[in-house]
# Entry
Amino acid sequence: MAIPAISLPTNITVTTTITATSNFKNLNRKTPIKPFNSTLKSLTKSGKLDEALLLLESNKSLQPDIESYSSLLHTCISNKSLEHGHRIYLHLLLNSNKSFIKNPLILSKLITLFSVCDQLDEARRVFDHGVGNEDRPESVWVAMGIGYLKKKCFREALLVYCKMLLGFIEPGNFAFSMALKACSGISDLRVGRGVHGQIIKANNDEPDQVVYNALLGMYSECGCFRDVSKVFEEMPERNVSSWNSFIAGFVKKGQVFEAFETFRRMQREGVGYSWVTFTTILAVCSRVTYLYYGRDLHSQVVKSNKIPDIVLLNSLLDMYAKCGAMEYCKRVFDRMKYKDIASWNTVINGYAINGLMGETMKLFNEMVGSGVRPDRVTFISLLSGCSHAGLADLGEELFDSMTGDFGIRPSLEHYACLVDILGRAGKIKEALQVVEKMPVKPSGSIWGSLLNSCRLHGNVSLAELVAEQLFEMEPNNCGNYVMLSNIYANAGMWEGVKKVRQMMENKGIKKEAGCSWIQVRNKVHTFIAGGGFEFRNSDEYKEVWDELSEAIEKMGYKPDTRVVLHDVNEETKVEWICGHSERLATVFGLIQTGSGIPIRVTKNIRICADCHSWMKFVSEITRRKIIVRDTNRFHHFDQGKCSCNDYW
# Structure
């Protein structure tokens, strides 16, 4: 067999000088083979690779056994020691006994070593030159496939599996799981189903948990949630990874209640958990503002004997930030021993969406001062915060600093934020100039920012031009049609409203209904705009509603019926306003929670101007904090004021 060329690092020499130490004074004397192997293994297990290799290279007359070579390579893999791995590989190539370099165990470990050391080309060279296709056992093929998987080369991994089948090698569980993970990586459902069929027809051992978990992951990644449920329920045994995959499938589909119920079932069955479990559920808590559930998970983390990893801690930060509990978020952040860029970005974004731009800038300056370099995500949070806080000058300054001080090239998201900053501040002309001078084609989000600016400042003519661009780019985006309809309605142009609605009807586009939800104790209660008749007809609702209405009317509250964008009489408009989902959720919270407990409401669309005003009055009358999270940001109502300062 021809010896393949390998690239040795410059600091490695073939000739090794033996240092005279107390341990190796008599290295050149003939050493019995058994003590030689046992000494080699002992040094390897102790992590003394330099001494082990010195012993190996200085006793050329003695041949280590396969177990010794395997132990050496295993330690190199654990330590990701490429230098020692190259020396072992060279030793094997120069060895007169070629059975070692052809041994499947040695080949597999060499391939694994070079793969984990980011030397995939070297791993492939070992794979290609080791033995012929027909002589390669499954373990060698799998090692090469896993090497590709680790580098996210999913198609190459799948190609290795296919070539293995062409060589008439019968796949086992290791090969099946490798192939399924490759299918997951490229969302190839067709091939994934084919592998599943091979698993069912296989004559070897029954599929193990790794294979089942890979099946769950593949079907989940491909969006086949019926198959996910079927595989999960048919599994003879389930481990934590199985449950994690099952929960992740629900999360990906947006079935948050099913995800929570599966997690509760997991706990009831005493399966245990991993940090991946908590990270997945915390992400759901962030999405739907389940603060109390998230805090319960946090308490379990604190009580655990295991040390939480950085991913879990960042998920905790995100959960608290997106539940509007920045005091808890900052407390977790301050106690973290290690913080990565994601940690800083999460808290900065949390302050920004909660309208605390002073704290946002303070933390940003602290971040830069501590030597952590901000990235593009950092500036998206900063610019977005400036937009919602009306800080146009600061926003422009940060945009310039991003490029000038930190060398970050603005992306479409950054330009969208800048256009939004200028447009909201009434600088529509400047915003248009930014769009015209952009080095890339404006995206839908940029035109959307301009359309929203037209709504804020009543610029109907420009809105019509911008809407044309959006309808062409995003023909099925309901929000664009609704925004233009609102602009027409605010201007009293009801024919325009009718025209837009006709367009929506012709295209089968329906406006998303307003929906709000509130968590009281361990249950989530959902309210739809204009719905909740059973609750609204209850005696307790009527009593609280009448008391609130009388009190806020005395304080000067008057319904702003301009938010009703329909050509109906005033009485009907007032009735519709009273049925907005965020109001129903707030009244429910007032009834069901004790005094002094903040009321936390989440809404799926933007809060309307009249509800915003109503919330301020209610917070003052009841002396309760009301925290509303809509699609854009948080509104913290307290003692008749809102954290957004009526700019949102």
In short: Residues 412 and 443 are 7 Å apart (CA to CA).
